[in-house]
Design goal:
This protein has 305 residues and is α/β, with parallel strands linked by helices. The protein has three domains: 72 residues, Winged helix-like DNA-binding domain superfamily/Winged helix DNA-binding domain (Arc Repressor Mutant, subunit A), CATH 1.10.10.10; 109 residues, 3-Layer(aba) Sandwich (D-Maltodextrin-Binding Protein, domain 2); 103 residues, Periplasmic binding protein-like II (D-Maltodextrin-Binding Protein, domain 2, 3-Layer(aba) Sandwich), CATH 3.40.190. The protein is 44% helix and 22% strand. It contains eleven helices and eleven strands. The strands form three sheets. Strands 3, 4, 5, 6, 9, 10 and 11 form a seven-stranded mixed beta sheet that branches. It has a two-stranded antiparallel ribbon with strand order 1-2. β3, α5 and β4 form a beta-alpha-beta unit. α5 packs across α11. It is globular and about 75 Å long.
């Protein structure tokens, strides 16, 4: 039996992760027949079927799941080996793979990466933007080395380091009828038009959960795909929204929006940077982790502008 090689394992992992031979071929910049041949060679090496079709998606068999788990451990070891040798040779080249939610990317990462680049100008950063649960999945399956998320769920395979705290606040156009009112009950906003992120986003999930508990079931007047678009809509007087406080620094200074004092919807979030417990951090990754722990929510928005 021929031994499997890293090339075959990487192709197999890509197919299993994406659930498609054609998508794997596009990501790897090779032809689909070449992908199929390498997977077949790997199956021949192990003497069993590793992938199967369920509906329109390709998924691993039981043996495929085993190979996939060990393949990702092998990739981590190879990466650690390359990092170790590079650091012994004094090189500062390579790539740091980060996963982060949209709010991090828009308002927190720019000043963080600027400081990181001062120390490691030769290191490139590959950024994956995803919702928090998908960032955690990316860390677990080895797609990214570090993840930046809010309120990570406890997981024995994940190591989480606290950063600062941010909070979600309700914003409205200046002159809103409750602008100067204290402790506004959620029910008082029943008639207001709400501007939401897409279904499944953190802010929307919070509003829907708390709203159902307090008898508020807001229907989104607008559903927009980014916090920036939501802020523009609020400024234009189209409704109210729940957004990260760190995202509205300039708008508050300019008087373009106001914060409504809604205690039930003012949510403090513990931010964290995470990595897989088995992942050996490089010197560059350790530096980025340290910088992230020093992040100051009071200045991040100003620095990123």
């Amino acid at each position: 039996m021929a031994d499997p090689n890293l090339h075959q394992l990487r192709i197999f992992e890509t197919v299993a992760r994406l659930g498609s031979f054609s998508r794997a071929a596009r990501e790897l910049s090779i032809t689909q027949p070449a992908v199929s041949v390498q997977v077949q060679e790997l199956e021949r090496a192990f003497g069993t079927t590793l992938l199967q079709r369920l509906g329109r998606k390709i998924v691993p068999t039981e043996a495929g799941d085993l190979v996939l788990r060990y393949a990702r451990e092998i990739f981590s070891l190879v990466e650690a080996l390359n990092i170790g040798v590079a650091e012994l040779r004094g090189l500062q080249r390579g790539t740091v793979r980060i996963g982060a939610s949209p709010s991090f990317v828009d308002y927190m990462l720019p000043p963080l990466l600027a400081r990181f680049r001062e120390q490691f100008p030769g290191i490139s950063v590959r950024l994956t933007i995803a919702e928090p649960d998908d960032v955690v999945k990316g860390v677990l399956n080895g797609e990214v080395s570090l993840g930046l998320v809010a309120e990570p769920r406890p997981d024995p395979q994940i190591v989480a380091y606290p950063m600062g705290q941010d909070e979600l606040v309700v914003i409205a156009p200046p002159g809103h009828r409750y602008e100067r009112r204290r402790a506004i009950p959620v029910q008082a906003l029943r008639s207001d038009p709400w501007i939401f992120r897409e279904a499944g986003s953190e802010a929307r999930t919070i509003i829907e959960r708390i709203g159902s508990q307090r008898g508020l079931a807001p229907t989104p007047t607008f559903e927009l795909s980014s916090t920036e678009a939501i802020k523009r809509a609020v400024i234009s007087g189209l409704g109210i929204a729940l957004v990260p406080y760190v995202s509205i620094f300039y708008e508050l200074v300019a008087g373009a929006v106001c914060i409504l004092d809604v205690p039930d919807l003012t949510i403090k979030r513990q931010l964290a940077i995470i990595h897989h417990r088995m992942h050996r951090l490089s010197k560059a990754e350790t530096t980025l982790l340290t910088l992230a722990q020093q992040w100051d929510p009071g200045t991040a928005r100003a620095e990123s502008g």
